[in-house]
Each structure stands twice: as C-alpha cells, then as structure tokens.
Amino acid sequence: TGSSYPSNNGNLNVPRIFTNSQKEVLRLIGQHLQSVGLNKTVDFLIHESGCVLEHEQASNFRELIMSGKWTEALVALEKLKQYIEERDGIQQMKYLILEQKYFELIEDNRAMDALQCLRNEIQGLKIRIERTHELTTFLMFNSMKDMYRASNWSGKGFASRQNLMEKLQKYLPPDIMLPPKRLETLLSQAVELQQERCTYHVKPGKLKLDDVSLLKDHACNKQTFPCVTIQTLTDHSDEVWFCKFSPDGTKLATGSKDGCLQVYDVDMETYKMKLRKQFEGHSFGIGCIAWCPFSRYIIACGTDECNEIWIWDVEQEEQRARMNHSSEDSLTCAAWLPCGQRFVCGGSRGQFYYCDIDGNVIDSWEGVRLQCLHVTSDGIVLAADAQKRISSYKFDSLTDQQIIHEDHPIMSFTASKDGRLGLLNIATQGVHLWDLHDKQLVRKYQGVTQGHYVNHATFGGPNEEFIASGSEDSKVYLWHRRQERPIMAFSGHTRTVNCVTWHPTLPLLFASASDDATVRIWSTPEHQMKTESLSGNESST
Asked: Where are the annotated WD repeats, by residue (predicted)?
C-alpha cells in the first residue's frame, strides 16, 4: 500500500465516531505512550483514531521549550495567549521561560548575556521583584555546584526543561495541553481509593502503582491481618482489668484484681512478650494504667474504694511516689500531660486533682465525679463524668466546656492521636465514635455485648482506621472505622474481655485482657508461625 501503517483489513478510511470520554482516554493513552518513548505507536494512534493529543500550537510550543529555543518559544506563547485563563498567566509563563534561559546562560559561562537577559527581559516583566533580586545573586557563585544547590535547579538539560514544561502546562487548559502524567495521576488516585476501601489493609504508608496489579482491584485478605493469638500471658492470678502498650512500644503493662502490675518487654521483631518486672501491693486491684509520654513512669489506679495511686519508675524498677491526699478520696483514673512532669487524676466521689510527678496536688477542681480521663497532645484535659458527659478542662484558667452528652453512662473513652475523634464505651450500648471538634456522633458500632462493666476500646492500625473492643461475651470485636458491623470477632478468652490495646508502632500487633486472668497477644498467622518456630528452636537446644 506504500503506507507505513498496518492495513487493518482496509478499514482505515472508515471514519469512526468517538464519544468525548473515548477521545479523552485515547489522548491519555497517547500521552503515556509518548512518555515511555513509543513515538511511532503514538503517530499510528493519532493517524488511526483521528484524535490529536494536544493542540498543534501547544505541541510546537512544547518542542521549542524542550530544545531550548527561548526566543521562538516566547513567540509561540503569544499565539497561545487566547487560551490562558489566568489574568497574569502569560506574564508568569514568560517569567518561568526567561528564568530557565538565564540559568542556562550562566551554566554556559555567558555571564554578560545572562545579565542582559536579567536586566532587559526579566526585569521588563515587572513581576516577582523579590525573586528577580534573588536571581541576581546566582551570578556571584564561583562554582556551578553551589549555584545548583542555592537555586534548587538541576542543571541544563532534559530534566530541568521537563520540570519547566510541567510548570507551564498548569496555565494551559487540558483540552489545549494535557496535564503532565495524567494517566499515572488517575491510576494513583484509583489505587489510593482502593486502599481506603480495603477492609483489612494494615500496611503503613500509601500504596504506589508499583505495589499493586492494575489488572484487578486491591484487596488484602484476612491472613495478612492480626487475627490469631501468638502468645498467652498467664502471670496474673485473678481478673485482668487493664492493659496498655507504652508510647514508644517497647513495653506492655497489665493490671489485675490480684493487686499486681506486670510490665513486659516487647520483642519488636518476634512480638514476643517477656516479663520484666512485677510491682505488687495494690490492695484494691488495678483498674487503670497511665504511661507517661516518655515511657518511663506508670500511674496505677485502683477501684472506687481506693483512695491512693502509685507512680512506678519502670527503668529503676521502683516506686517513684504514692499519692494519698485524703482518706475520703476515690482515685480511679489518671492521665499524663504532654510534658511528662504533670498529671491529672480523680474518681467517682468528686475528686479531680492536677499534680506534679511526685503526686503533690498543684490545683483541684471541685464537684466533678470522674469516670475516665484523657489528655490531648496539645495539653487539653478531657474528662468523662457521672452525668454522661465529656468536657474539656483548662486548669490554668479554670474554664470548662461540654463537648459530648450521651444518653447512657460513659464507662470509658479514648481519643485519636490527632485529638479529633473520641471512642466511647457506653453502658448497655457498646462502642460509639464521636467527632470531638464538631461535637457530632459519627457512628455506633454493632455486635459487642456491653452491660455496666468498664470496658476499654482502642484505635489501631497505621492511620488508626481500625477499632477494637472487648465484650462481655468473651470475644474481641474489630471494626473498620467507617463500617458499623464488625469485620472480625476473635474467640480465645473464656470470660469477659475488659480491655484491648493496639501497639503504637507495629500495626500487626494488639493485646487483650480478660476476667479469665490471661492477656492474649494477637498478630498475623505469619507471625504465629515465626514465634512457634523460634520457640521450637529454643526448646530443642
């Protein structure tokens, strides 16, 4: 036929009618093929489809920029003027082109020409005056390397011109010139959305295009999720009421009705827990544990009858302080301030104290019967009270503000790391999620059995997108934050599960404490195999 294109059964001359979306897809494919260097294929695509990748003048403009023909590029830009919507867009584009010209002249050791460009062309635009003054300084450098570093410019050539082209492209509408890497951008957005919607996704960080197959939707399976017990801790002799990983993740503390506080070291590789120290003498048991932000000190609180709290130094393995303000007190909850030198504590009989690290009362708040305490990363004290409310308290100004009011008693609560979301365990109702900023109930999670016992839920996963809670039916329930129905329910405990804590840095690890006197460590089947093979090796030696 004399044509360089395949014959396609002689149907090339039959005009095809494409919808607008089909044309756009063809343009995106063409742009992608062009970016990977398949230019002959692009020519054939344009020839066969009749779709043009970009406006002819825009295409010409791109070629001139990429070959460094600055004077001609500025003339070509004038022809594109009618398509530029931004008020001073044409001036900004000229500035970017002349800036590239200026840098390339400096690199070519043409200092006088560069100075002429700066004085006669760049300054003549009368925009970005501060940047123009800055450009003057780049003429003074003795070495090119220093100039590159100071100007954040990659040097003359394809990369810097491509970068310039991407900046210029933003001023032109997409029907004239496609935005850079548009197909890749759309596919990345699709992968991001799939990751968001993936029920079992626990890997930290954002998925990239190379991490997935584009031929099917991304979906993790249950096997990649922490769903099996890899270790059962049996050091307590009675009901375990509380468990909490330290903020740095290196330790796990557990508190029990038996009056003991157990502290375990966490093996960050195998996720194995090893008992480090047992602190005894809490005659009313331990119903609440608060780690200081630096993971050194622990406050241990008892039940309603308990009028004192203990502050333990985990590093020195000794008691730092024992606070006993009044024999009438009930001190059942505590939380550290971000400085790690102050804490708040209180209980159901109306005590609410602001203390130093040795338990000396600095200030107090009268008449608030506390159920639970939490301090946000910016130092705001949040407290749940017996009136089914959560309020914020500022001790420096003695001001308080109600945030939440529930219809049933709030048994416990915690907040997300950014302080935006509150996770509440509500008597007879289960787990509720609140937006603390907007003061709105976001979601009620289904499935859990909750009576009038205190239960502690937790956020978990790399972006706190999971929620876990114990239940009075002996199970651990797990939800994706955006779904009201549980995605998993874990069996293993034989009595009520009182508390769940998720590891702060290892998204595949959490722990649960139960009335059956055990603490279960949960991870993935893969980690279960790893710990079993390690213990097998140890026992055979």
From this structure: 233-267, 279-310, 462-489, 490-532
Q: Does residue 375 sit in the same domain as residue 257?
A: yes
Per-residue pLDDT tens over the stretch 333-354 = 999 999 999 999 999 888 899 9
Decide if 508 is inside a domain.
no
> How far is the CA of 194 from the CAs of 25, 207, 213, 428, 499, in angstroms?
21, 9, 12, 35, 31
Q: Which CATH number belongs to the domain containing residue 328 in this structure?
A: 2.130.10.10
**Amino acid present at 159:** A
Q: How far apart, in whole angstroms, are the C-alpha atoms of residue 471 and residue 459?
A: 16
pLDDT digits (tens, 9 = 90+) for 268-327: 989 999 999 999 988 899 999 999 999 999 999 998 888 899 999 999 999 999 988 788
* Of 170, 224, 178, 182, residue with least CA distance to 201: 224
Global confidence as pTM: 0.73
Identify residue 200 by its one-letter amino acid code: Y
**Residues 169 and 278 occupy one common structural domain:** no
Whether residue 307 sits in one domain with residue 176: no
Domain boundary among 437, 463, 489: 463
Full residue range of the structural domain in which residue 144 is found: 54-180
